[in-house]
């Protein structure tokens, strides 16, 4: 059974950093574009960043550009999101997603809370 498991969330003060990890099992992420999404209370889920299969192409939502960095390790089937200079508006549940040609998978999410 394919699983994506996020970890690394927690509580941090504004200006701090958090590194999220997404571990894929029964899934060779080499063949999937990977993305991080987030959902804050009362708001729709939004895409934060995506990274293509090779890792050479990334797209960041404007609000996180210059602060967040995505990376992937195909050998370990892992995806990471380094989040620096966090702001209270970054508070949300963060989800990992794997996108294939005709299929996609979601993780269960990890909470990140940024206090001012």
How would you describe the overall organization of this protein?
With 116 residues, this protein is mainly beta. A hairpin with a 6-residue loop joins β4 and β5. The strands form 2 sheets. Strands 2, 4, 5, 6, 9, 10 and 11 form a 7-stranded mixed beta sheet that branches. The protein is built from no helices and 11 strands.
Q: Could you give the topology of this structure?
A:
Blueprint: E1 3-7, E2 10-13, E3 18-25, E4 33-39, E5 46-51, E6 58-60, E7 68-73, E8 78-83, E9 92-99, E10 104-106, E11 110-115
Parallel strand pairs: 2-11
Antiparallel strand pairs: 1-3, 3-8, 4-5, 4-9, 5-6, 7-8, 9-10, 9-11
Question: What key phrases describe this protein's structure?
Answer:
mainly beta; 11 strands; four-stranded antiparallel beta sheet; seven-stranded mixed beta sheet; globular; single chain; 116 residues
Give a brief rundown of this model.
The protein is mainly beta. The protein has strands spanning 3-7, 10-13, 18-25, 33-39, 46-51, 58-60, 68-73, 78-83, 92-99, 104-106, 110-115.
């Amino acid at each position: 059974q394919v699983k994506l498991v996020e970890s690394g969330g927690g509580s941090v003060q504004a200006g701090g950093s958090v590194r999220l990890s997404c571990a894929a099992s029964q899934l060779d992420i080499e063949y999937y574009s990977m993305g991080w999404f987030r959902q804050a209370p009362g708001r729709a889920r939004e895409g934060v960043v995506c990274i293509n299969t090779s890792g050479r192409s990334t797209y960041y939502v404007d609000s996180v550009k210059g602060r967040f960095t995505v990376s992937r390790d195909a050998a370990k089937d892992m995806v990471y999101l380094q989040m620096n200079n966090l702001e209270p508006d970054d508070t949300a549940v963060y989800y990992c997603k794997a996108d294939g040609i005709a299929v996609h998978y979601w993780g269960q999410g990890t909470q990140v809370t940024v206090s001012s």
